[in-house]
Design goal:
- The chain is of the alpha+beta class.
- About 20% of the residues lie in helices and about 25% in strands.
Length: about 375
């Protein structure tokens, strides 16, 4: 039996959702790799865990969308941030997705095994995610490797050859707010001398995804290469991260939809603010960073918020930037928000493109984040 799903997301919506216009896509598959970022379930009654967090519906079959997404039109679910995607579980032999979007590259995972990278370009199309499976229970996951600056992915249907099943809710929800380091810029590059391309950006080998997999957490990443708190790369000031943070679709001002409340949030920003000689002053940076922390707290009232910078920012700039961030943390603590703290992410092993962390370095950063969350939250 072929079951075609209407893509209804029964999660906590944040305000009314705009419809918008998606950018089309299509194409074929090529070789690649990636890492799972978590899973869950969508339709049906909502379960709340002991901490009061919406843990996702428990029993009804459906597609769970991972990361921020706009499901105002159930026949065209939209998403764009790095790592956004879907999870579907079924009893049968195959699954496919029809999508119209500019995601470019996606990681496909079938029963925990990473498949060849799904490369998407051109017109809208239907893509086989799994085919010829043994008739039984299977879980298929699809995640964007490419960041939100490439435009929105629009998913119009998910079809399974068999019977749709519910997907267990995730144990934890993690959000990471950052720049190119968190998006996975250049992580698949041969060395520091290659330049950016969508083909070498791989969010699933970036530390947020690696850490989320190790922790059994569902991940939502809000990251855009070159963005900072005050200054973007090269002192550009157009739409720094605080102006983007509340968006569901990265490149659409005012876009709204589903933003799940996280148990923990990592903010990794500041590298681009200090990337050139035009560094911000303490009077510029600290109030802006405090404002961003207030935005994060408004979205995630019960979360532990951890703050860090880089790598690769170091030396005098690194010392100055850390001092500014620690001042912002102290201000939030003094204002009564005790669940904001600094965390060190310091591992280094290799470079990716344009002196960004390579896959080995990203794995080390993930180890630091995993250790901190296990220590402070018992994950």
């Amino acid at each position: 039996m072929v079951l075609s799903l209407l893509l209804v997301a029964c999660d906590e919506d944040v305000g009314p959702v705009d419809s918008g216009v998606g950018v089309d896509a299509g194409g074929s598959r090529d070789a690649g790799s990636g890492v799972d970022a978590g899973s869950g379930v969508d339709a049906g009654p909502v379960a709340v865990d002991a901490g009061g967090r919406d843990a996702g519906p428990m029993t009804a079959p459906g597609v769970r969308y991972v990361g921020r997404h706009d499901a105002s039109d159930p026949s065209a679910v939209r998403m764009s941030w790095s790592g956004s995607g879907l999870v579907v579980r079924f009893r049968g032999t195959g699954a496919r997705v029809t999508m119209n979007g500019a995601g470019r590259f996606f990681t496909v995972i079938v029963d925990g095994a990473v498949q060849p990278t799904l490369a998407v370009s051109g017109a809208s199309g239907t893509y086989e995610l799994a085919t010829g499976l043994a008739d039984g229970e299977h879980t298929v996951e699809l995640y964007r490797r490419t960041e939100g600056s490439f435009g929105a992915t629009v998913i119009t249907s998910v079809d399974v050859d068999g019977e749709l099943l519910a997907v267990p809710p995730p144990a934890h929800l993690l959000e990471v707010v950052g720049d190119s380091i968190s998006a996975g810029y250049g992580v698949d590059g041969a060395d520091q001398f290659c330049s950016f391309s969508a083909a070498t950006e791989n969010h699933f080998l970036a530390y947020p995804s690696v850490a989320a997999r190790a922790l059994g957490a569902e991940l939502s990443t809000v990251a855009w290469s070159g963005k900072g708190v005050i200054f973007n790369y090269d002192t550009d000031t157009w739409e720094p991260m605080p102006e983007l943070y509340d968006r569901v679709i990265a490149d659409e001002a005012g876009s709204t939809g589903v933003i799940r409340a996280a148990d923990a949030v990592l903010v990794n920003l500041g590298t681009n603010d200090f990337s050139t000689d035009g560094d911000p002053t303490e009077g510029q940076f600290v109030p802006a960073y405090v404002g961003l922390l207030e935005q994060v707290r408004a979205r995630h009232p019960d979360a532990l918020i951890l703050c860090t910078i880089g790598p690769p920012l170091g030396g005098a700039d690194g010392t100055t930037a850390r001092g500014f961030v620690e001042s912002a943390i102290a201000m939030r603590n003094s204002a009564g928000d005790a669940r904001v703290a600094w965390v060190d992410l310091t591992g280094f092993a290799d470079w990716g493109c344009d002196y960004h962390p390579g896959d080995e370095t990203q794995a080390l950063l993930a180890e630091d984040l995993v250790a901190a969350l296990r220590d402070q939250l018992g994950w």
